[in-house]
């Protein structure tokens, strides 16, 4: 931990939030997660539904209790983190905030003294200038000190907030990359992460984010400011007459606030409206993306979607804009029927008139009364709006805190976890009664899948569209879980391996492989990040994927930045435009070769026992296709022909399938036929008829 006044941001991995675990199984409001979830629950007609992510919580007793619970549980952690980032700067920030909040009261007092002195100058003939010069110089000095302190405090705050922002963003990223597909697929967790993102973003734009619960410090300084004004006002108040004038002044200055508050209370309950608005805001954004992103451009043109997008967007946009309009027309109080501002101005002047009537009152007193009371009311207004923002921020903070404690669903409990058990010749797979249903679906994608594959064997999975081939591949790769049956990898249940460890022993090409918005070198090298800096290894992987000619034809070879369809808004204007002259687009087949090279980066490693390739050559010509399968065969065997790796591939080309040791024919989520090509041809079932049809 650093105690120097360093401007350097601290590395947040050094700091930890409290390690107490949230549990979704505990009764209500036992954890921050429970409080977050409860704050999103709608009541009344909407019971059982949840607010959309980011929608403000209604200001009611239930939510106030939840906010208190969250504050009690999270704020000490956050303040500890802030303190840990830089104790000296944080102490300075807190102190300077308090000192700064006293400035306005001093300002008013000093100005009142000058006004009094000027009044003396006008009224008295024996006046000496010395005192006035002294007062004016003190005022100038006060302003200089105030200015210096202000700029030092701001720059100090920027460093503290910068560190806090970095910490929050780092933690957010760290957690995001740890979570797996099933965890991210859970709709409640997605909402949690969305609100957690909002929390992290609330730190953006310099200084404290508006939604930041760390605005508590702001609240503290506002309270100090209010107290200092009150102290000043009370110290100038002598006798019952002044006290009456004081209360009248405060009341008249607070009238606008009271009227706004009265209007707010008469507004309709905001929850359902907010949910509807938030949905509209979300739809409006998606439609805007559709209109702006080039990935959709060909289909928008082809299907003539322009008008539909525009109409749908304008409908959603109108809902959002309507929610931003003040509700005066609909819900105004009777007070609003008059010109309220004029009435308030008249009332505010009454105390001044009363002060003028009083013989003991000086011009300075009037100035200080007026400025202090107005500053006081302004500070109270500011306090109310900051408190409202903090109220919403507290729930976003709860989302952040709860999301930090999320566990990847696929990771086994420590007591169940076993180290990966390597087997000579690859992995053996024993699948019994395997089933899987995607979250939210009623029909299983996999049901009663059974097969056995020995270490080092190759398996081709074939079948109709939607029969479950890719789902089975994802289960084998431990990208998704299975909810029925068992899957033994090297005779141990796959669930018992740490997914990260298991993944280090497999390599794959997915059907919808990634097209990274970076150089060719990184697109390939990411298959084995430990060797991303080794050019010969990358070149070898490119050769295995038959992608040398693709790379050679690129303007900067391996260093060429690849243009990812849909990521660059101007990509359809071609690679030759000025903006994208440094980027290069690739054809579907060329991208597939890059994805294959990425998989070969890792597949070639000795510790990799299982290769799963989902339609790896669907975009390649027949010659390239053959070459790739030759390569697969080559890398899965030693030079002497000994089997080293198990290979599973999905294909619609049955001439390719027959190269495998075993073939699994999938139909409606299950394996309907399993065996060698010859066995399945003898069976004369679906595979045989498909095969004959493909000839
Ligand atoms: N993410 C998902 N969420 C819900 N259902 C899904 C998801 N992915 C696939 N499915 C469904 O699961 C079933 C199996 O899909 P899968 O992609 O495994 O089929 P496939 O045999 O690989 O098809 P294809 O040959 O067209 O690639 C389909 O009915 C599909 O609609």
TrEMBL record:
InterPro entries referenced in this protein's UniProt entry, alphabetically: AAA+_ATPase, ABC_transporter-like_ATP-bd, ABC_transporter-like_CS, P-loop_NTPase, Type_1_exporter
CDD domains hit by this protein: ABCC_MRP_Like
Pfam families: ABC_tran
Keyword Coiled coil: no
The UniProt record lists the keyword Transcription: no
Membrane-spanning parts: 216-234, 240-262
Keywords from the UniProt entry: ATP-binding, Membrane, Nucleotide-binding, Transmembrane, Transmembrane helix
Residue ranges of every copy of the ABC transporter domain listed in the record: 429-693
Gene3D superfamilies for this protein: P-loop containing nucleotide triphosphate hydrolases
SUPFAM superfamilies: P-loop containing nucleoside triphosphate hydrolases
GO terms assigned for molecular function: ATP binding; ATP hydrolysis activity; ATPase-coupled lipid transmembrane transporter activity
Source organism superkingdom: Eukaryota
PANTHER family: ATP-BINDING CASSETTE SUB-FAMILY B, HAEMOLYSIN SECRETION ATP-BINDING PROTEIN
Name the UniProt record assigns to this protein: ABC transporter domain-containing protein
């Amino acid at each position: 931990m650093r105690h120097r006044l360093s401007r350097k941001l601290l590395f947040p991995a050094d700091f930890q939030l409290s390690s107490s675990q949230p549990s979704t199984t505990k009764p209500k409001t036992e954890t921050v997660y429970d409080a977050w979830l409860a704050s999103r629950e709608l009541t009344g007609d909407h019971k059982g539904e949840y607010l959309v992510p980011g929608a403000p919580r209604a200001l009611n007793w239930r939510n106030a209790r939840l906010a208190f619970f969250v504050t009690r549980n999270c704020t000490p952690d956050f303040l500890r983190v802030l303190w840990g980032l830089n104790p000296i700067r944080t102490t300075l920030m807190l102190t300077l905030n308090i000192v700064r909040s006293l400035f306005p009261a001093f300002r008013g007092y000093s100005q009142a003294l000058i006004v009094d002195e000027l009044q003396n100058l006008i009224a008295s003939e024996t006046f000496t200038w010395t005192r006035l010069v002294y007062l004016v110089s003190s005022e100038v000095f006060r302003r200089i000190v105030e200015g210096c302190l202000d700029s030092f405090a701001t720059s100090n705050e920027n460093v503290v907030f910068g560190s806090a922002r970095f910490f929050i963003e780092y933690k957010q990223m760290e957690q995001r990359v740890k979570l797996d597909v099933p965890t991210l697929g859970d709709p409640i967790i997605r909402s949690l992460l969305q609100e957690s993102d909002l929390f992290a973003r609330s730190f953006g734009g310099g200084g404290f984010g508006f939604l930041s619960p760390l605005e508590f410090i702001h609240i503290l300084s506002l309270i100090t400011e209010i107290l200092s004004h009150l102290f000043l006002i009370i110290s100038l108040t002598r006798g019952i007459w002044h006290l009456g004038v004081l209360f009248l002044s405060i009341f008249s200055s607070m009238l606008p606030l009271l009227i706004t508050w009265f209007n707010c209370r008469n507004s309709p309950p905001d929850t359902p409206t907010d949910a509807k608005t938030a949905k509209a805001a979300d739809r409006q954004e998606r439609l805007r993306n559709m209109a702006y992103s080039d990935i959709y451009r060909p289909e928008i043109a082809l299907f003539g979607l322009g008008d539909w997008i525009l109409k749908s967007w304008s409908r959603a946009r109108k809902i959002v804009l309507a929610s931003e309009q003040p509700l005066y027309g609909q819900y105004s109080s009777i007070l609003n029927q008059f010109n309220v501002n004029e009435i308030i101005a008249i009332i505010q002047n009454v105390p001044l008139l009363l002060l003028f009537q009083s013989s003991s009152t000086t011009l300075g007193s009037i100035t200080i009364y007026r400025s202090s009371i107005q500053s006081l009311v302004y500070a109270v207004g500011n306090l109310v709006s900051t408190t409202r923002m903090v109220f919403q921020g507290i729930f976003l903070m709860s989302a952040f805190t709860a999301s930090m404690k999320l566990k990847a669903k696929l990771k086994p409990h420590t007591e169940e976890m076993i180290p990966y058990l390597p087997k000579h010749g690859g992995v053996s797979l024993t699948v019994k009664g395997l089933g899987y249903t995607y979250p939210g679906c009623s029909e299983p994608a996999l049901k009663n899948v059974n097969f056995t594959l020995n270490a080092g064997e190759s398996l081709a999975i074939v079948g109709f569209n939607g029969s479950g081939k890719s789902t089975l591949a994802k289960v084998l790769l431990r990208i998704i879980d299975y909810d029925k049956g068992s899957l033994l990898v090297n005779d141990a249940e796959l669930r018992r391996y740490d997914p990260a460890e298991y993944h280090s022993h497999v390599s794959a090409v997915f059907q919808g492989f990634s097209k990274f918005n970076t150089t060719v070198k990184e697109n390939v090298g990411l298959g084995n990040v430990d060797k991303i800096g080794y050019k010969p290894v990358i070149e070898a992987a490119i050769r295995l994927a038959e992608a040398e000619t693709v790379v050679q034809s690129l303007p900067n070879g391996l260093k060429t930045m690849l243009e990812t369809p849909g990521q660059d808004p101007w990509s359809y204007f071609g690679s030759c435009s000025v903006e994208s002259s440094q980027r290069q687009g690739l054809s579907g087949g060329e991208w597939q070769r890059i994805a294959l090279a990425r998989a070969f980066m890792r597949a070639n490693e000795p510790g990799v026992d299982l290769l799963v390739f989902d339609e790896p050559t669907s975009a390649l010509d027949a010659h390239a296709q053959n070459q790739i399968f030759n390569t697969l065969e080559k890398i899965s065997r030693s030079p002497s022909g000994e089997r080293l790796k198990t290979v599973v591939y999905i294909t619609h080309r049955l001439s390719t399938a027959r190269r495998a040791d075993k073939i699994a024919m999938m139909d409606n989520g299950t394996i309907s036929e399993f065996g060698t090509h010859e066995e399945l041809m003898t069976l004369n079932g679906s595979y045989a008829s498909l095969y004959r049809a493909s000839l």
